[in-house]
């Protein structure tokens, strides 16, 4: 919901506020390896290069140390549990997660879907490696610590280059620029400057999910224990071959990245109907940068895809749409209630006939 005036948070008070910093690798922890950069620095090394806001006491947890292109659902669930474990301590003011930028948008959204605590979880990282003269990591860490120690009831946030973004809808829009994240369909949540955190709007969020069952994802990364959710992209010469192959490979969810406002071909409609008949959750997003998918066109368009059983993802793009499908499959709901839950996670309004809370 929008606010007419900024919700301004001054610098943290003199009394120390503890912030847990969970390190997962990424560019912010990367150093030269002879042929390129890779994550190898500990969270303490990352934090050593950053100033710490007055009144904040950081406590580092090294969870794992990987380039974020190597992120897996199992690792994301391990991160989810690590954050929840940190927040069991009532003396912790908030959590900062240092994360590579490639898959940050997916991890942040998964945590936001399960985040019921008023204390913030703030993701940050870097576009330039550790120790470089023009490195952006130290400034981003300082800002993230300040946000984590001073805001409440905003869910999971992404703080980068002086901007505060909501987890939902925020994606990487620049490969190398210092301001890599934005929500193409919504504005940022706030900004930082001159010792202040200015929050301009409260993010729209679905009712948080409970944590997945304890055993889910406990095996090694890539474990077959987790439901397979694939992404298939439509293009000018596309046919349903890859969608059918995903289903044949055991996918329990598929995200179709359609064209325009969510359009494909009659052949895709048939493949979606067949997948849904087998109990596969199918979500439809678009390869277009901004704007919602919508039921406008037939002839293989979103009108027909929805009629075949697919769920439109609103303004969520492929990576976060996949996370919504994954979270739905991991939730403790009956199969016949999964479409309803998925719609809720995608942000369907409560007035929508199929958006009632799942039992």
TrEMBL record:
The keyword Membrane does not apply. It catalyses: L-asparagine + H2O = L-aspartate + NH4(+). One of its GO terms (molecular function) is asparaginase activity. Pfam families: Asparaginase, Asparaginase_C. The active site is at 27, 27 (o-isoaspartyl threonine intermediate), 101. It is an enzyme of class 3 (hydrolase). Residues 18-203 form the L-asparaginase N-terminal domain. Belongs to the asparaginase 1 family. This is asparaginase. It comes from Streptomyces aurantiacus JA 4570.
